[in-house]
Structure formats: structure tokens, C-alpha cells
Amino acid sequence: MGRRRAPELYRAPFPLYALQVDPSAGLLIAAGGGGAAKTGIKNGVHFLQLEQINGRLSASLLHSHDTETRATMNLALAGDILAAGQDAHCQLLRFRVHKQKDKAEKAGSKEQGLRQRKGATPAEKKSGAETHPEGGELKVENLQAVQTDFGSDPLQKVVCFNHDNTLLATGGTDGFVRVWKVPSLEKVLEFKAHEGDIEDLALGPDGKLVTVGWDLKASVWQKDQLLMQLHWQENGPTFSNTPYRYQACRFGQVPDQPSGLRLFTVQIPHKRLRQPPPCYLTAWDGSSFLPLRTKPCGNEVISCLSVSESGTFLGLGTVTGSVAIYIAFSLQGVFLCGCCSCYVSGLLL
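The structure assignment produced for this chain is given below.
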């Protein structure tokens, strides 16, 4: 008997490269596209309302924002501002949700304040999807844009905001970290962090910056001053014939400790092998940056890492499309699935 396929939460009409969840507004923000090639595939950012209906997660399409010839490859969220990596540039977007209640008050009728949903298509009903297109509830405004990468084949690969959303940091194929004021995008800092691509970066609340790169290094910076390099294998497994590189890094709160901080990293084999060794997940002390624990997280190559707002759960995504949820404290796996709805549910816990 074949494995039962989980119901779809949302199917994008374009290649999907970036997701963000806004728990405060109950929004899922999905972005991607076909790029500048004239293939007929659109580029856009979709804003979806997440709700629990009869114990089941449902997604309602509120707004589709056209990004013209630019596919969005990475996203960061700060309140009502999105930072979108589009080719070698970073575009700031501001979105505002308009409640149905306001419309009803203007019309003078309570009945018009009820959400009117269109029925699912036969294909959606068959797959279990619950995506309900609804326009006019959310507006998007283009703010500033700036070029953030200047390599031979420039591409912004990662963007993140600092703790109070006044700065954002970007990294890409040229190995430079650049820090920008929000929302003016005035550059305040630039330095060479890695030889080759920057794969990920994370800004801590104390101003420290962690970067991971294609050169197998993970570095901790105070502005442009290198403080230390991370060494995950000192208290863990070693593979002399299998070089590993850091693929992702994220800071997370320590539950029940307001001032506590953890850093989480993912390590993957630097080269693809016929019999791939496992990937690893490591938790670090957020002050000393000493490794606390390392555990394997499967043989599928990890492509992204997320930390829930509470710091309780970690979400991993793989290049094959599967996702997994781990307990942040113990690095114990609690869920593995091939659909994005389970991943979004875990991050909303």
C-alpha cells in the first residue's frame, strides 16, 4: 500500500523559493517566479491568510503582488516590511492588511462584514487543498531598492533584519556582508566575510553577526571585526575524508529564559556522494559560541533552517521538498513530512 499523501495547503503558480510566516497577523508569505526568461512563468509574492477551520489549517489568498521580471529568491520580515532578494538587488515592500469589518462599517451592513469565500475547484477538493482567493484585503507598496551583490554573476542569497528592525544585513556570491539602514537602505557597513558565496547569516540582539560560507567557515563578527570561528566537530563526529560546510544559521530564544540565546547551525557534506553521509544539526551557546550538542538529521541534503518565534521548535527543509520539525532544546526529531502545511503548522506553535 502506497504512502498516503498529505493534503496541500497551497500550490504556487510559480517556482517557490522563499516562505515567511507572520504569526501576529496569521499570514503566510510565499515568493518566487521564473525570472527574466520569457517562459510565461510569472514572478510574484503571494500573501495568504492562515486559519484553523474545523481543526484543519486553511490558506486564503489575500493578495498577489507582481514583481515583473524579478523572481524573489529570499525574504526577511520585519513587522509590515518585507526585504526581498531579487537577482543582485534587495527590494523593500510594505504591506498593510485591511479588515473586512472596516468595509462593512462603510457599507452600513453587518452582513457584508462576513468573509465570502469562493468554493474550491474540483482539483483542490480532491487534493484536500483549501486556498480561497479573496482580493482587496491587503495592499503592497514598493519602497526602496538597492544593489546588494557585485560578484561576476551577482546574486543576493540571504537577507536578515536586526532585533529592532532598524538595520538589515545582506550576503551573496561576492562574499561581502553589507549592512543597510531601514527603510532608507543607506549603507552603513561593508566587509569581506568569506571566499566565495555567503550561504546564510544571522544577526543577534547584542549586535553580533554570524556568517556561514562556501569556504567551509562559520564566523562570528562584531561589526567588521572577526571575533572567532565556529568548530562544530570538536565535540562531535569527525569524517576525515568527508569535508562538511555550514549551510544555515539562526538565532533562537531559550524558552523560559528571557535573556537566553541559542545559535543553531546545519552542516551538510560539501560534495554530493553516491552514498551520502548524514547532515548534522548543532546547538551553540549564544554568548560563548561553544557547541552544546550535535545530532544527525538525516541523509537528505538540508537547504533551509527556521526557528519558531518561541524558540521551542526548529524546522528543516531539504532539497527534495521534505520537511522536519525538531525540539530546539534536545535536537530530537518530532515530525517528518513531505508537505509544507505541516512545516507551517509547526512554526506557528
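Interim note for the steering committee: Residues 340-348 form the longest helix (9 residues). The chain has three helices and 24 strands.
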